[in-house]
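Progress report, Aim 2. The chain analyzed during this reporting quarter is listed below.
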Amino acid sequence: MDAASPWFHGFEARDFALEGMHIRARTGGRAGATPLLLLHGFPQTQAMWQRVVQRLKPYFQLVLPDQRGYGRSAMPPGDADHASYSKRTLALDHAPAPAPAPAPASTSNTTAPRARRASKSPATRWCCGASAAWWGAL
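Predicted structure tokens for the chain:
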């Protein structure tokens, strides 16, 4: 379906950079509303949501990505252990970065736990990079 399709009236389609590839997503809905990520099944694409998005858009800000290897998103090469297409990898492509833990209060107790630092994994870079544009645009 092209961007002018009545299926996705009022939605913007664009590509988001991810670790040397791109994820194609449509965004739309009510500005300032709770974001709702709609992930398609297999072997579908974001087009599977065409019957529900018009009913959801008054209540949510919607994000409809084509997962890696599907639709208009990039198809990275597979590897021997299939990790690049594992459910964990597919989920991490779309997960927002966790909020950093607060710094511990200054105390004289030397056994106080240290604040956790955000992961430097590829998924975190996606969330803080391209996804910041996608989640930040909501």
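DSSP finds four helices and four strands in the chain. The beta strands are 12-18, 21-29, 35-37, 61-65. These observations will guide the mutagenesis work planned for the next reporting period.
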